[in-house]
Amino acid sequence: MIQFHDYPLSGNCFKVRFLLEQLGLEYQSILVDFYPGYEHKSPRFLNINPLGQLPAIMDKGQAVRDAQAILVYLAAAYDKSGKWFPRDHQGEVYQWLAFADQLTGSISAARLHDAMFYRLDVSKARTEGIKLLRIIDEHLWFAEKDGHDWLLPLPHPTIADVACLPYIALAEEGGIDLAPFFSVSRWMERFMRLEKFKPMPGMMPLQMPKETP
Amino acid sequence: MTSYVVALEKDVRDYSIVRSMMGDKPLVIWRGASGAINVWLDRCPHRSVRLSAGRNMGGYLEGVYHGWQFDESGKVTLVPALQGRPSHDISATVYSTAVADGFVWASVEECLPTGSGGEPCYPVHIAAPVDQVRLHVDSSVDHLTPWGVDGTMVYPTGDPAQRRAELSAIRRRLEES
Ligand SMILES: N[C@@H](CCC(=O)N[C@@H](CS)C(=O)NCC(=O)O)C(=O)O
Ligand code: FES
Questions:
Q1: Does domain A2-78 have CATH number 3.40.30.10?
Q2: Which H/E stretch holds residue A169?
Q3: Domain range for residue B130?
Q4: Does 1.10.3720.10 match the CATH number of domain A87-192?
Q5: Domain edge (last residue) among B57, B91, B125
Q6: Which residue of B has its CA nearest to A190?
Q7: Among residues A36, A95, B28, B74, which is most buried (max CB within 10 A)?
Q8: Which of A135, A146, A206 is the best residue to mutate to test the B interface, defined by the most B CB atoms within 10 Å of its own CB?
Q9: B47 lines ligand 2 (CB under 6 A)
Q10: Domain named Rieske: which ranges (chain B) (predicted)?
């Protein structure tokens, strides 16, 4: 069974948990006390990921680290439909996966500063986060105009959406106001209406009414 | 009093909520079961929580915190803590609103939309006060709404691809100066 090293307040862990559940995979969740325990820097965990970062998984005796790498790994190995990782759109998929890691480096950093008292240049992190939000907001506006609901021009979400969602949905915990990003807000709402979507702490708490807009 | 564009009409969908700003006022915008669009101050009269964090149930808007229900006129029609009784003397702050040329307009007084130059396109937020932005855009084509004290939302019209490039350049110039 897949072992998933998980921390419920981590947006990067959210990505992995979301896909595991969408794919209906059985997994064992191993909780790592990230804050205040710093257990991701413990010898036990460094053995699994020498970078001391969450998330990581163990599958068939092999460790895979990095949320984006795990999304690709799981989708390639277990998604027979090919929908989550559409092979004929690989360039776009990788582009958004890299973008997602930049969201971690900016919005998530601002959130770690505000919520977990990390010491870093928070105004620089927010400025960078806003720059990224403008890019994705604009992309989504033009996608919607062409009749597409998701980052890729396909009638369903992919791992690109999964990778980009959590730190955007958590941006306000890092002091970044999402109100000016109209298209991003609509995309988040669509995502949160997906079947089996479970919000993590800090994401919109209420179940939306069933009717989809 | 001045009327402002606060959203694109097509973006205000059933069972959904739009957040916006009109000057220093945060807004919650929602389309009710009647089909009409409501523009309110985004503050719950109960504990000041954002109403936009709640949900649009069609016939009413529900506060996220304690489940207060507001009908389309802004009146509180149900308070769970009062065993479901209404509380008609409490109301959301409702603004006068109108729809014109695909834009949603609002005003703290009577809302009077002015004409515009065509199809709404991509709204652009600029981190510069509205007086400065006005020097760079043609306000017969683009509607300008102050967004907080030092920001502006530009609601342009015209060909999106072309306008996007133009407005990004203006934004860069204003934000970097
Ligand atoms: N590129 C990695 C970044 C993971 C990451 O930053 N994880 C955070 C928790 S959400 C972490 O473990 N930070 C501790 C550190 O970087 O030392 C990924 O996408 O998984
Ligand atoms: S704050 Fe709105 S219901 Fe209590």
A1: yes
A2: helix A159-169
A3: 116-176
A4: no
A5: B91
A6: B16
A7: B28
A8: A206
A9: yes
A10: 4-106
pLDDT tens profile A171-193: 999 999 999 999 999 999 999 98
Q: Where do we find the tokens 């919607």? A: A144
| Nearest C-alpha in A relative to B18 | A182
Give the CATH number of the domain where residue B12 resides: 2.102.10.10
Instruction: With a cut of 70, list the residues of chain B below it in pLDDT.
Output: 1
pLDDT band at A206 (very low <50, low <70, confident <90, very high): low
Instruction: State yes or no: pLDDT of A210 exceeds 80.
Output: no
pLDDT grade for A207, boundaries at 50, 70 and 90: low
- Closest C-alpha residue for ligand 1 atom 9: A54
Question: DSSP 3-state helix, strand, coil percentages of chain A (rounded to 5)?
Answer: 55, 10, 40
How close does chain A come to B106, measured CA to CA in Å? 17
Q: What pLDDT is attached to residue A213?
A: 46
For chain A, the structural domain boundaries read 2-78, 87-192
Say whether B122 and A142 touch across the interface (CB within 8 A). yes
**Is residue B81 in contact with ligand 2, taking CB distance under 6 Å?**
no
Reported ipTM: 0.92
Helix crossing, A159-169 with A122-145: angle to 10°? 130
Backbone phi and psi for residue B37, each to the nearest 5 degrees, phi listed first: -100, 130
Euclidean distance between CA atoms B90 and B112, whole angstroms = 27
Query: What are the two backbone dihedrals, phi and then psi, of residue B34, each rounded to the nearest 5 degrees?
Result: -70, -15
- Are A206 and B122 an interchain contact pair (Cβ–Cβ within 8 Å)? no
- Residue A212, pLDDT > 60, answer no
Quick check: CB of A49 below 6 Å from ligand 1? no
Please indicate, yes or no, if residue B125 is contained in any of the structural domains: yes
Q: Are residues B78 and B141 in the same domain?
A: no
**Amino acid letter, residue B116:** S
Q: Which chain B residue shows the shortest CA-CA distance from A202?
A: B53
Q: Which residues of A touch B153 (CB under 8 A)?
A: 180
Residues B77 and B17 grouped into a single domain: yes
The string of pLDDT tens digits covering residues A2-26 is 999 999 999 999 999 999 999 999 9
Four-CA torsion A201, A207, A208, A210, nearest 10 degrees: 140
